[in-house]
Amino acid sequence: MEAVRQLRRRRTLVIGGVLAALPVIVLLAFQIGGTPGRADRTTFIELATASGPNFAATLLFMGTGFLLVIPVALFCGDTVAAEASWSSLRYLLAAPVPRARLLARKFTVGLAFSAAAIVLLPLVGLAVGTAAYGWGDLRLPTGGSLSATEALPRLALAVAFVFLSELVIAALAFWLSTATDAPLGAVGGAVFLSIITGVLDAITALGSLREWLPAHWQYAWADALQPQLEWGGMIQGASLSVSYAVVLLALAFRGFARKDVVS
Known about the structure:
With 263 residues, the protein is mainly α. The protein contains eleven helices and two strands; from the N terminus they run αααααααββαααα. It has helices at residues 2-8, 10-33, 52-63, 69-77, 79-85, 89-94, 99-133, 148-165, 167-179, 183-201, 232-258, and strands spanning 138-139, 145-146. The protein has a two-stranded antiparallel ribbon. Helix 4 runs antiparallel to helix 7 and helix 9 (167-179) packs antiparallel against helix 10. The model has no long low-confidence stretch (mean pLDDT 87).
């Protein structure tokens, strides 16, 4: 079974271990360095020690943009290319299973592991933060706070948006995985393009063109952690990511259907 095979792979265990250990590492950093200093502009990092929900939000803030891109790109970019590099892909295709079904199964499993990685980081952060700083209200960088019972569904909504925003990375990595026999090329290509879009988004001279970059909306999940829930940015970001993902997946399925697999 594809899910069991992926679960037993060393890279899955390493990624899970790293994501589970990161909240503890951040906690130790706060314990050694003291309470985060106040900057001119308050962020989730400055409020990390306020409560368990604040610590979870801080971990999500730290993971957005790069850290969570890596497991998504790895789980979705390694899945087909790894089979080709092991010279086992042609044997999988020899079975009476349509290529489209094989790809759909591999992408579904890759997405499932990606979702687990995205959920794992703030979930462990919530447990570690609650043990260290107690269960309390979620203090907001904009002022005010959300009660702990209200903060949990808002955090879940933020995590769901992060997953949707990463769909474009997942689809890009998967497309590259079907086009190359080098897993590192597929994973690295997706991560590299993610970095490039982030750099382009920082160029304010591009003006409204930046709104067509997935990176432009990656922190829109913060709108879920406002006294008044705001949907606009999250809807635009999720719609853009899903639209790009559909195109990239169509390219992956179309190209792989015609590919002469010899490895």
